Amino acid sequence: MKELSAPERSTRPDGSAKRKPKYVPSMMEVGRIVAICRSGAVHPVIAASIELTVFVALRVTPAAAALRDGFNEFEGYD
Length: 78
Fold this sequence. Notes:
Layout: H1 27-39, H2 44-65
Helix pairs in contact: 1-2
């Protein structure tokens, strides 16, 4: 195992690293998931855990994927 090393990172012709596009569900899909969970078709404990996962993922993903360049600077905030 000591002789193993990580493979070189692949890059695009412009020099930037490859990134796989992230799948983002539409609001219709999210609404369908929540509606099924609330309909009683799924065990209440499982439904609650799915809803919690959906709501947490909706809040965390945009925050985790945010880039500093995407923010605008406001005057008065240091």
